[in-house]
Amino acid sequence: MSDLARLSINQMTVRQLSLPELARTCVELGVPCVGLWREPVQEYGVGAAAGLVRDAGLRVSTLCRGGFLTATDPGAREAALADNRRAVDEAAALGTGTLVLVSGGLPAGSRDLRGARERVADALAELGPYAEGMGVRLAIEPLHPMYAADRCVVSTLAQALDLAERFPARQVGVAVDTYHVWWDDTAPARIARAGAAGRLHAFQLADWTTPLPAGVLNGRGRLGDGAIDMREWKGHMDAAGYTGAIEVELFSEELWAMDGREALARTAERFVTHVIR
Amino acid sequence: MSDLARLSINQMTVRQLSLPELARTCVELGVPCVGLWREPVQEYGVGAAAGLVRDAGLRVSTLCRGGFLTATDPGAREAALADNRRAVDEAAALGTGTLVLVSGGLPAGSRDLRGARERVADALAELGPYAEGMGVRLAIEPLHPMYAADRCVVSTLAQALDLAERFPARQVGVAVDTYHVWWDDTAPARIARAGAAGRLHAFQLADWTTPLPAGVLNGRGRLGDGAIDMREWKGHMDAAGYTGAIEVELFSEELWAMDGREALARTAERFVTHVIR
């Protein structure tokens, strides 16, 4: 098996590349799989994007992202559900079985984390059957606790799995991203439990480097530059029976400033060096 | 009982005040208690500082901070232990029964979180009996997971309590700071467990506001400005039997830019509004 057989490049990692450039570069470099984002796919056209990646012989590991399901306002809640049904449709059209969900933060002025997490569960109850009907699994992604207020009230793999386990595994599972869970000594046991139940729907890599930038969004480290032992986390996923794509998803000003092809080539090299070999 | 009876002002909250100014302002405003930091106390002189707060009739809730116990280098490790014994001595001299410990981050180039946490345990085995002999309890403070790499490998109250429970409660307990634990739905149960065992040695408050500043150190929110329900966390501590001081510890550029007396007065007002009444 090629060293790159399980690599998926998340589109955000090389956002300076257009969708056709991304597809062409992946083919040239032998990267077999991509993780796509809704906004650039919509801009290109969902059907056109689906045709592009299909014609290039690429697989689509995940579509990022649905979610943002914590609104209390009924109108906003209905709009979020409708948008997530569209995200499911887009995932199905792109031929990926996995839609990644980021749950959303606290509504303005709210301090009710528990209530927000329950609204995510309520939304999953509506979206899960719809997704199943379209052949798409929802992957709840816990984000690092530093995003709990403004982006994602689901902060740990335990919380994500607690939510997922209320629904059938063919509807709802979890996404494991090293950047978000690396500090959590209880995460490996949750990976094992999720794997046993068929709920490991996505695996993403980014390294943890400091100091964090203002806003803490775009400082994800390139593999090997930070504090995370990538092989150890891949080992947890292997042991849990996960055999799917391994996505590299870096939000990195450093990487975005590079030539896109170069950024993708270097990312693939680091994947081999720090994850596979 | 006065609304301020349980308030302690952590010195860092109004670091623009000298130690005499801090003591005088606390007395004027009816704040009965302070949390002190080693560096300004050493600068003023430990004995002089002890006399100053004693003569002002102030209690000292905690001394911040010892710790930084994760070094692998034997020399650095010995130096850290010696420094922590001095911190214990200083706490005893100041008349506080509690030394707050921040465990330290990963050594440069290391990715071994588990090993670093074990070295903290090894150090506690040496420091605990020494502290007990001096009448001082060590309070392990879990810091928010965003500090796991570079500041504190103990990221959750569960991890802190797992460490503390290896030692007698009269030697080692935990410090609970809302800023660090507010996102963690498993923290309330750990507070209850720590309280039942007499291991709740300190309680600190800061609010969570976003966006976080670069470096994520000095953006702690003033009480009431952020996502944390202060009354809820005080309720957890109350239910666990904690009756000690409630320290307000804000690292805030905004607060530091204010007149120190004004900053302290406004902080006391917010304590009453958002915690007590």
TrEMBL record, chains A, B:
| A GO MF label | isomerase activity
Key words, A-Z = Isomerase
Q: What is this protein called?
A: Xylose isomerase
Q: Which PANTHER family match?
A: HYDROXYPYRUVATE ISOMERASE, XYLOSE ISOMERASE
Q: Which domain of life is it from?
A: Bacteria
Organism of derivation: Streptomyces naganishii JCM 4654
Q: Which InterPro entries match?
A: IolE/XylAMocC-like (IPR050312), Xyl_isomerase-like_sf (IPR036237), Xyl_isomerase-like_TIM-brl (IPR013022)
Domain Xylose isomerase-like TIM barrel: residue ranges: 26-265
- What SUPFAM superfamilies would the database entry show? Xylose isomerase-like
